[in-house]
């Protein structure tokens, strides 16, 4: 992890393992007293058991110094000193050995402020029970109370106690000056969602909450540099995030993954630099949300594939249907033209109906095929420069027989002095016009009127087709562009279609980077405006 964190020089063993120094001082004082007693002629064999028992709390303090952040370790150490005080009172006399109970709150001061009160209560209760037991005669007489060995033991105990208390005071003052707070402290409300971790300017752990401890199974990294293991795949990215937060002074966010009980867990990790030069780390478990997103992604992919398969199916079926329809239209055309002789009246009428129906079906299939190509991304525009006015006139000529049959008038309004040269796909533009005109004729009553307007404005061709037909409601307008959706007018029309007319117009317009605007009033008519760029960018 390439992150620069300036650690304080005072980050020493005393700060990290506060119990270590007092334990060493206690053992050193006992050893010095033992040596002094031996040199003064004391009985070594009588003193040795006393000194070995007295050394037990110091030895425990050294062995457990790395784990003093844990609750059970703190309790064990306090009870060990309380037990030593009880044994000293029973063996050497309650006075002055009861002073050893002071060691219990003294060592508690190295943990937390709350522990000091807890240590005082433990010491007072055990000392009180010991005193009352002695007064009531439940404890045996002190065998060494008046002996020389007892005198040396009492002197050694008091000297060691003074040294121990001074060492604990030094350790407590040193840690308080460095702002070190025990990492087992729940520093924030446990109701906060996610894990919260605070590290000081020297990258040492200040505190966490219950959720944060649970994320690390109770073994929270004591140093920010060890927040992620060195072999973790996101370790380098985490280092870069911390370094970026330090340089910019702004919170940085990183998504990390790791194995959790054999499963992959996803976390959003937010690193916030504090004004105290420390760090606040917030980790939020996103595993369930990622699983839900993955399900949605799979469903979306499945829906996309289904839509693509449907589109390809329509395209294939439509293409296959064109061949027999062309044959039907061709043979019916031969019958209409009496190529092989005259037909009886009714058969001639049937031939006309077959030809018209086949042509109408071929047009509908053409719409399905073209829209399927657009949806499948296979519709390719063949750009050409042409006069849009010619395409408009030819399209009106093609639709005029149907308009005459429906007794609908079509007026074309073109500026003869203005050229409508456009770069576009000629076939697509013609299809747009034919669909708009066909819809206008289909949904116009007898005596209806259709206006076709076209003009070049600000680099665009604005083409509009307006009719005085049945119009559309607001709900029908909102569904324009949905394939196979027909309005109420389509349901009552005698010439029902596929509902693809305006959908295909919308798709072909979008392919040209154009716009379609539809305005309609129920019972008054519809106006569709198509805006196409005159030039290809």
Radius of gyration: 47 Å
Helix/strand structural class = alpha+beta
Q: Which H/E pattern describes the elements? A: HHHHHHHHEEHHEEEHHEHEEHEEHHHEE
Strand order of the largest sheet: 2-1-5-4-3
General shape: rod-shaped
The biggest sheet, with number of strands, parallel, antiparallel or mixed sense and barrel status, is:
5 strands, antiparallel
Measured between the Cα atoms of the first and last residue, the distance is 49 Å
Number of β-strand runs: 12
Which stretches of 5+ consecutive residues score pLDDT under 50? 5-11, 179-187, 484-499
Helix content: 40-55%
What is the mean predicted local confidence, pLDDT? 79
Report the β-strand fraction as a percent range: 15-25%
Number of helices: 17
Number of domains: 4
Quick structural overview:
This protein is α+β, with helices and mostly antiparallel strands and 537 residues long.
Describe the structure.
By secondary structure, the protein is of the alpha+beta class. The chain has four domains: 13-177, no CATH class; 195-285, PAS domain (Beta-Lactamase, 2-Layer Sandwich), CATH 3.30.450.20; 306-375, Helix Hairpins (Orthogonal Bundle); 383-533, Histidine kinase-like ATPase, C-terminal domain (Heat Shock Protein 90), CATH 3.30.565.10. 53% of the residues lie in helices and 16% in strands. The chain has 17 helices and twelve strands. The chain has helices at 13-16, 20-39, 44-63, 71-92, 94-97, 103-108, 113-135, 148-177, 210-215, 235-248, 287-336, 345-375, 388-405, 426-442, 474-478, 488-492, 501-511; strands spanning 195-199, 205-208, 252-260, 263-273, 279-285, 383-387, 409-414, 421-425, 449-457, 460-467, 515-521, 525-533. Strands 2-1-5-4-3 form a five-stranded antiparallel β-sheet, with helices on both faces. Strands 7-9-10-12-11 form a five-stranded mixed β-sheet, covered by helices on one side. β4 and β5 (279-285) form a beta hairpin. α3 (44-63) runs antiparallel to α4 and α13 (388-405) packs parallel to α14 (426-442). The longest helix is centred in the middle third of the chain and has 50 residues, at 287-336. The relative contact order is 0.06.
